[in-house]
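Quick one, tokens below:
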């Protein structure tokens, strides 16, 4: 599953190319793309051209993604740029391992080989390889999913507020 607007920086084109490779080894694999945007027609055409249109669901805008996250096995974010990675954090909170690109805020939240895997941007072969490896290893997916859930709590609003209070307390103590 991937949740992101269909814009160039989100690199759905890379994901579709990677998924075409995934399907060669795992013909029952399905990809759910949640979101919408100006590139949707081109991406639907790309899926058709790659021969994977029947395996890819374009879900459109979904106001509540939690039920869909609960049905997914892996979350994928193939972004070329990603300031914060909020969608990845939500997937992690749902207990999903994350396959994402080594860009922006994703580097801060995805601990490669622990709660997910980071690959270089614009590398569909590497993304496909990591997706197949995870999908072929349910025990690894489960362990990474649990690590994702734990890691997501470190980025919750309550945890961030607690860290700020701790920081300000330490800074205040240093001035006495």
């Amino acid at each position: 599953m991937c949740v992101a607007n269909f814009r160039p920086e989100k690199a759905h084109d890379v994901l579709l190319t990677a998924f075409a490779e995934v399907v060669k080894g795992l013909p029952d694999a399905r990809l759910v793309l949640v979101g919408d945007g100006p590139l949707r027609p081109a991406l639907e055409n790309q899926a058709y051209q790659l021969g994977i249109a029947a395996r890819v669901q374009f879900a459109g805008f979904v106001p509540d993604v939690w039920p869909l996250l609960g049905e997914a096995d892996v979350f994928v974010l193939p972004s070329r740029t990603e300031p914060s990675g909020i969608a990845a954090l939500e997937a992690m909170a749902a207990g999903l391992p994350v396959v994402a690109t080594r860009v922006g805020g994703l580097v801060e939240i995805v601990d490669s080989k622990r709660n997910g895997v980071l690959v270089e941007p614009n590398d569909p072969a590497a993304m496909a390889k990591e997706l197949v490896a995870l999908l072929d290893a349910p025990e690894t997916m489960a362990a990474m999913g649990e690590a994702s859930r734990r890691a997501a709590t470190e980025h919750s609003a309550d945890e961030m507020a607690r860290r700020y209070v701790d920081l300000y307390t330490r800074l205040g103590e240093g001035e006495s």
